[in-house]
Amino acid sequence: METLESLPSVSKRTVTPKALLHQKYGERAVYKIEKVESAGNDCPGLVIPQSGHSLFRCCLELPDCSVTSDTFTKKKDAEQSAAKMAIEKLGIIQPKTENLTVQETWDVLVARLSYLFSDEFLSSSHPLVGHFRAAVQREGDIFGLLPISVLATYDSRVNNLCKSINPRAELSPSLTIAIVMKAARLSDSVYISEGTLWVCKQHPHSPDCIQALVDQGLDPTERIQIEAVYIPCSLVKPVEPFHFYVSSKEYYMDVVAKRLGLSDYSRMLVSRTIGKASSEMRLYFSAPDDPLFSSDSSVDVLSHATDCINTALELNERASYFSGQKIYGDAVMSIVGYMWKSTNLFHKDVSLDSYYRVLIGRTPSGNYKLSREAILAAELPTLFTLHSNWRGSLPRDLLCMFCRQHRLLEPVFMTKVIDHSEHSSEILEECKRLKLSSSMSGRSTGEVNDITNGKSVGNGSSFGCEVKILSRGNDVIIEYSTEDLFRKQSDAIHSAALKVLNYLNKYFKELDISVEELTRFGDAQGVHVYPDVFTREFMLCRSAHNHWPKSILKKCCSEAHPNKNHENGISLIKIEGPDSGSCPSIGSLVCISYSVSLLRDGHSYLTQPLESGDDFQFEVGVGAVIHQLEACVMQLSLNQNAQFVTEIPSEDLILASAGESTKLLLPLSLQDCCLEYSVQLLQITEPLEDRMEQALFSPPLSKQRVDYALKHIYEANATSLVDFGCGSGSLLDSLLDHPTSLEKIVGVDISQKGLCRAAKMLHSKLSVNSTVRTAVLYEGSITDFDSRLYGFDIGTCLEVIEHMEEDQACIFGDVVLSCFCPEILLVSTPNYEYNSILQKTVLSSRGEEDPDVSTQSQPFKFRNHDHKFEWTREQFNSWALDLASRHNYSVEFSGVGGSADVEPGFASQIAVFQRKSEVKDCSNSNDSANIYEDIWEWSNNRPRSAI
Questions:
Q1: How confident is the model at residue 441 (pLDDT cuts 50, 70, 90)?
Q2: How far apart are CA 136 and CA 151, in angstroms?
Q3: CB of 765 within 8 A of CB of 460?
Q4: Coil, helix or strand for 584?
Q5: Reported pTM
Q6: H-helix or E-strand containing 106?
Q7: What is the mean pLDDT of residues 67-78?
Q8: CB 478 within 8 A of CB 487
Q9: Degrees (nearest 5) of the Cα angle 746, 750, 753?
Q10: Is 717 left (phi over 0), alpha (psi -120 to 50) or beta?
Q11: 657-661 — which CB contacts under 8 Å span 24+ positions?
């Protein structure tokens, strides 16, 4: 058997500069933070004023000197920098980081206990000082006595040293106390009361010190009422609320110990914090009859390595689940104690609904529900679609929080980059075939590979992610690797985290599921689980979560509303309001108001609804709400109201939502009740085009358009390109991820905000490596002519014209082909007929007598809310053929997404205009003034400050 002495302990001591100054100067070290605006010069040459990022500097004032730090993006970094400067200036010697042996750790622990019981410590602002103050206000035999558990719990240094001596102390409060007892017996300053778990100073504090300590306390006041929760050890008994009173003359630990029925108050133990450390929510429970607590010197406390306790008390599985420690007997959950730099007794009520909110917060979907403030309505979505559509805490944060709450290691995310560009050797051959410049075709294979695969971000790359969940002992519990690829690294991480969360959610919703079934479900989802480790880590979940069989929907709904149908898991009561014709579709972002009430015998049981929301948004089709609510909303049109009745979910969710009504619901048989939802559809935001495209196309349609443009650049050996309607530069950004023959690129747009983003992107890429010699951005309308853009090799206008009015799109076509005169012009726009595929609707047939019926009469919607029009293939072809015939161009039609030979054609239709012959140079004509505003220019890798 391992002993404490034989355990290899590694205790690292690191003291930050700020902590070191605090030890020396305390509150005399004054930190003042100043906010400084940065110059915002991350993109030289940009004429649009740039707002800089907020930076911070710290002015530190000490009795001996004053220093000012440099600027930092975070306040805490500025403070640490100022502290470090002061330490160097004053010549203070910093303690070195060192590994301590077991014996050295024991010595440090003994010294720490001696310091805690010194007069010097009582003058500090440590939370333990409040406990000492309460102890010296006692009368009789327990004057000045403290429970050992207080030292082990409320002093983080003592606690960490105990875990360094024996890591098992983290899970066993009994072992922690045993270690503290041993250290106290080794100290000349500390005394252990015979046969108890009391500890006190070996020699009394001086009367002056005690008087100063008492004077810091509060004046006598009325008793403080504190609400708490009682967690019985027996699973048959329910969790109950109760309250206790503490006066200014009482020690709250004695009051709680009395509530637990302890005659010896020293035997009350305290758990670590539950949830966030700042909440100070803890469990109070009685110490087991452990031989480690014996005062018999012959008892070898060092042999306590298996945490085997001879006790009549049973393991409190619910309390142990909350704390991650072994807790025996009944327990009290409360928020009460002393805080830093305060003489007041800090306390907050822990109501019964608070208990259940903490409980559901430990489930994979619970924190998502809590972050959305919609416990009964929200569900953990099944898919991570668009970052802008996600509501509530993000999947990665949710998974990290789940692991921390269950005392697991932080989840490990490993991303992989997949470059979709051709292999380097294939690119080299393609470059030669397309007769690119000699400098490009002469590159070695490795160099081409650097250009194409060296980019970790860009439209040429996709990301996958692998995630692992590990126990504290580094045993793998779950591992999953994404099969799908994503354009953004963050999307890959969030999608992988969401997959694992949904797998875990399956278990927490069906705690009686067998290991075999859980493994089969994981295999079907691509999630690999290690059953033995999984069962070991989550064995207490079944006891803590009170999942009882749900009420039968048909029974409760039929009794409440016998004449109603039961479709989609709901009993519809009524839909009110005229049909506006505007209904949500898959991918829509809807906004509703709703309320949920508890019904019993067809009547509302509570005067207030269990839950309500006035502005609740969710994405349709990803399971972001309970399926009954989504089914109801899909049947509504804008501004309509509906009510429906559904079954009761788990008891935990109802009690967590009820607030003050939880006390009324606890004795009620919820199986005799059902829930009534009242819903109004307030707003519908149609799904964005890229949201719909991502669901059907891999690689994304936007990348396919870029690849199509690249193909024509290669074939034309183009050296100059102008992008009409460049926006924030997504096309130009993508082009720079590939080797091309381009030497000059120009972007034109009417949005200054978009051009500013494009300039920053281009500057970051062109400054690293590029064959491009000149890059320019202009602000202006593409329906106006500017002579500087005359005669480029190739012009692009991808997915732009549909954002203009139709007459403006026609004007653009005339201006670009008659005045700008590019050698080649690529114009792409959505194929309206393909919307039937994207929106999963059926294109209704049009009468032969009216083939040119307006697109607004079609039964499906535009792909984006800001599209002014979307053309059918016939309309687009007619527009392009007319332009080509009038301006001496030929035109060919193609597209990406779908096929020309399969209805309804390409998703994005493309017209490629080719100039037939040389045209008259109009760049110097009187009508060709330089009307575009210069925004940014880059030349020969050297940005110029002005244009």
A1: very low
A2: 16
A3: no
A4: coil
A5: 0.69
A6: helix 102-116
A7: 91
A8: no
A9: 90
A10: left
A11: 657/353, 657/375, 657/376, 657/596, 657/610, 657/611, 658/353, 658/606, 658/610, 659/351, 659/353, 659/608, 660/351, 660/353, 661/606, 661/608, 661/610
